[in-house]
Amino acid sequence: MKLLPFLKPYRWPLMIIFFLLMIISFLTTVPPWIMQYAIDEVLPSGNANWLPWLAFGILLVSLTEGILSFIQQVFSEYIGQKIIYSIRNQVFHHINQLSFSFYDKTRTGDLMSRIVSDADTLNRFISFGLLKVFTNALILIWIFITLLYWNYLMGILFLFLIPPMTHAMFVYARRVRPAFQKIRKHTGILSSQAQENLSGIEVIKSFGNEGYQHSQFTEENEKVLNHTLAANKISAFWMPYAETLIGFFTGIVLLMGGWLASMGQISTGTLVAFLAYINMLRRPIRQTGFLLNLFSQSDAAASRIFDLLNQKDSLTDIPNARNFKTIQQSIVLNHISFAYKDQLVLSDINLQIFPGESIALIGPSGAGKTTLVHLLMRFYQPTKGTLFIDDIPISHYSLSSLRTKIGFVMQDPFLFNGSIEDNLRLGSPTATFQEVQQAAKEAQLDSFIQSLPSGYKSQIGERGVFLSGGQAQRLALARVLLKKPEVLILDEPTSNIDSITDSAIMDTIAVLMQDRTTITIAHRLSTIQNATRVLYLQKGHLLASGTHQELMKNSDDYRKFVSLNMKGTSS
Ligand SMILES: Nc1ncnc2c1ncn2[C@@H]1O[C@H](COP(=O)(O)OP(=O)(O)OP(=O)(O)O)[C@@H](O)[C@H]1O
């Protein structure tokens, strides 16, 4: 049902497919007609000249059926693929819009398994399963109409065969569906584990943790195996059942049909044709097991995909959202509180930041510094209070204009597999090459790039593995420089790089900070000394605000924290 909106654009091609299926299924039921005619009319008359024509008729019917099936198959594959293409695109677009709270509770591998393999299952359902069900149902209807036309008693007899068939299908589906749901769930977990393991391979190897990871993976893999074997056991039940059912139907028809024939109610040819029809049910009944499996898998896959599409915690633009260009007056945090779940991480923060200020944010680990800058980027919505820019709530600005004008440098920057130039252009795809190079020069990266054989086109590998820590950090700074942000948010690097690289990076940061409103999560004494204002956060509370000198004088907590934690010589 949920698929209907996706099928709607293809209603005409789908109608054509349905029309083709009606003809194909009708043609499937034609050969027994010909047999009936041969037995009842041609053979008793002793005129064998008709037989080659009847044989040719059967051949012609099969050939036409084959050609139409080919056309229908190509058509349905095309539509199935197009539908899956748009589902995948829509899911990917939708999850990209979702806020951080969604990513906090979702595992990447699970998302990947939904986008890739669940979508594939749906494709098989649309381009194959659904059509087979239609074909089989149409064949049953055609057979029923034919039998009714020949003799109403045979039609009724045929109707009596349907309930045992549907009952078995119902029982089977009820057992097989949960089994497939479990397989899907554990496959999602398995692919999350694999994904997490591969992303963290450096940490795993450095801790010699391969054995533990392997045992975790094996444990989950075993669950997938066991659930699959259990599902297969249920599936294996279907084939013998189908054969028994056909044998039972053949016996009943022979008994009842033979009786009708002996009473002169039906001809011998009709009885033979009826038996041929029963035999023709073999394929649909056998396929039913496979189709029910596919339906159960698709049902599980569809729920997982539509679950994603129904996720509503997106931070989206309000209608007619404003374009954020520059700060004229100030950024104001008015009674801001925030909780990820139940526990408050930020409590009643009140703050005003003026254009051109250089703010340093410090505090113990877990104090809420990162959370605070995430709220400024509007990654999350405050639980209480409002954030204003120039007296306008931040939620009134479009997300894209806001994030284009805010440069965010993370402590551990993420680089993408691709060329240096691609990575530099991440936030500024339309920048000229001169601008790209200028940003690299300012980040003191240009001479290194020039020394590479492929220059700016050099590939940096997954997550930038071909670069050193310092080069990666400078590249991350350069891509923010290229964006020419209005506000700069910086999580000061603390990684263990040599002092020359370190001072080069600090020089680049100084270039970045020039003439900009800057908020730095600071780890160095020099940064807090140079800041126009320092904010000291503790357990989610803004305990102190002022210049470094003022706070050193007035706040015991601040003084203690600085002397124990800040990098660099104490003043
Ligand atoms: N995505 C999240 N989901 C749930 N809790 C979170 C999440 N991110 C952070 N927290 C919790 O919120 C609190 C504040 O975390 P935050 O990262 O803002 O602190 P921080 O001051 O930046 O710490 P650090 O200096 O160690 O980076 C911590 O107790 C942390 O466990």
TrEMBL record:
<dbReference type="InterPro" id="IPR017871">
    <property type="entry name" value="ABC_transporter-like_CS"/>
</dbReference>
<feature type="transmembrane region" description="Helical">
    <location>
        <begin position="50"/>
        <end position="71"/>
    </location>
</feature>
<feature type="domain" description="ABC transporter">
    <location>
        <begin position="331"/>
        <end position="564"/>
    </location>
</feature>
<keyword id="KW-0813">Transport</keyword>
<dbReference type="InterPro" id="IPR011527">
    <property type="entry name" value="ABC1_TM_dom"/>
</dbReference>
<dbReference type="InterPro" id="IPR027417">
    <property type="entry name" value="P-loop_NTPase"/>
</dbReference>
<dbReference type="GO" id="GO:0016887">
    <property type="term" value="F:ATP hydrolysis activity"/>
</dbReference>
<dbReference type="InterPro" id="IPR003593">
    <property type="entry name" value="AAA+_ATPase"/>
</dbReference>
<keyword id="KW-1133">Transmembrane helix</keyword>
<keyword id="KW-0812">Transmembrane</keyword>
<keyword id="KW-0067">ATP-binding</keyword>
<dbReference type="Pfam" id="PF00664">
    <property type="entry name" value="ABC_membrane"/>
</dbReference>
<feature type="transmembrane region" description="Helical">
    <location>
        <begin position="130"/>
        <end position="150"/>
    </location>
</feature>
<keyword id="KW-0547">Nucleotide-binding</keyword>
<dbReference type="GO" id="GO:0005886">
    <property type="term" value="C:plasma membrane"/>
</dbReference>
<dbReference type="Pfam" id="PF00005">
    <property type="entry name" value="ABC_tran"/>
</dbReference>
<dbReference type="InterPro" id="IPR039421">
    <property type="entry name" value="Type_1_exporter"/>
</dbReference>
<feature type="transmembrane region" description="Helical">
    <location>
        <begin position="12"/>
        <end position="30"/>
    </location>
</feature>
<keyword id="KW-1003">Cell membrane</keyword>
<dbReference type="GO" id="GO:0005524">
    <property type="term" value="F:ATP binding"/>
</dbReference>
<feature type="transmembrane region" description="Helical">
    <location>
        <begin position="262"/>
        <end position="281"/>
    </location>
</feature>
<keyword id="KW-0472">Membrane</keyword>
<dbReference type="InterPro" id="IPR036640">
    <property type="entry name" value="ABC1_TM_sf"/>
</dbReference>
<feature type="transmembrane region" description="Helical">
    <location>
        <begin position="156"/>
        <end position="173"/>
    </location>
</feature>
<feature type="transmembrane region" description="Helical">
    <location>
        <begin position="236"/>
        <end position="256"/>
    </location>
</feature>
<protein>
    <submittedName>
        <fullName>ATP-binding cassette, subfamily B/ATP-binding cassette, subfamily B, MsbA</fullName>
    </submittedName>
</protein>
<dbReference type="InterPro" id="IPR003439">
    <property type="entry name" value="ABC_transporter-like_ATP-bd"/>
</dbReference>
<feature type="domain" description="ABC transmembrane type-1">
    <location>
        <begin position="16"/>
        <end position="297"/>
    </location>
</feature>
<dbReference type="GO" id="GO:0015421">
    <property type="term" value="F:ABC-type oligopeptide transporter activity"/>
</dbReference>
